[in-house]
Amino acid sequence: MQSVKGRIVLVTGANRGIGKSIVEEFLLAGASKIYAAARNPESLKPLTDAYGERVVALRIDLNDPASITAAARQAGDVEIVINNAGMLNIANPMAGNAVAAMQDEMEVNVYGLMRMAQAFAPLLKVNGGGALVQLNSVASMKNFADFATYSASKAASYSITQGLRDVLKEQGTQVVSVHPGPIATDMAAHAGLGEIAEPAELVPQAIINALESDEFHAFPDSMAKQVGAVYHDFASNIVEANLMEG
Predict the structure, then answer these.
(1) Which end of the chain is more exposed for a tag (fewer CB within 10 A), N or C?
(2) Which PROSITE patterns does the protein's record reference (predicted)?
(3) Residue 34 class from Cβ within 10 Å (0-12 exposed, 13-18 middle, 19+ buried)?
């Protein structure tokens, strides 16, 4: 179980959408300091202007391993890491750009997660265990043909998140896998999902609930909750079970 109050948090992709909402909601919940990370730190100025010293701007580009290791050196006191940054390309499996689209998505959505975990998990261990939170998607459980390559990359990131849960348990780090449906962000608008999208603040609220209740999965919005309700038994008996015990 993790309380947000008084904790030091890092959020990637913090300059807009879900990431910005995570920063704001975690501050409301009592986080003492948040490292807000984005590819362009200048885009974080509205957050640093609004919250002063409680928000520290960092540069993290999940495509740039050096930026991740540099940020880890700067944020050595972090206790909760939330990897929100990701990318979505619109490509079905037969599209001419499908392979290139998925290569880009894998680089950010999967390899970026692995780089973040490798850089920050040692810090979490030193700082008492803490938590690593990964923004996955309902698309990690159900492939949507128009976003097939994105769905596949998120399925891979969800699989890696499960592995991280088991590995990091040994050092006392809680891992949370977050699976939003359509959320009102620029990404959802780009994907043509604006009409059914729900408020971004549902995501940080679900993350806080998962941290406080020691849950691995978080399903924030209406579509996510629908998926989660059906998925619950499989998750409990398979995903979260230790099948290697025999």
Answers:
(1) C
(2) ADH_SHORT (PS00061)
(3) buried
- Which residue's structure tokens are 């975690």? 26
The SS3 assignment for 218 reads strand
Listed residue (150, 131, 113) closest to 218, CA to CA:
131
Q: Please report how many Cα atoms fall inside a 13 Å half-sphere around the Cα of residue 181, on the Cβ side.
A: 17
Nearest to 172 by CA among 111, 125, 233, 112: 125
Read off the pTM.
0.94
Token output for 67: 């930026």
Domain architecture of the chain: domains with CATH:
8-238 (3.40.50.720)
How many other C-beta atoms can be found within 10 angstroms of the C-beta atom of residue 49? Answer: 9
Q: 3-state DSSP helix/strand/coil percent for the chain, to nearest 5?
A: 55, 15, 30
Q: What radius of gyration, in Å, describes the C-alpha atoms of the chain?
A: 17
The residue with tokens 């309902």 is: 138
Question: Amino acid identity of 147?
Answer: F
Q: Which of 196, 190, 210, 170 lies closest to 80, judged by CA?
A: 210
Beta-strand ranges (E) seen in 171-241 are 174-178, 217-218
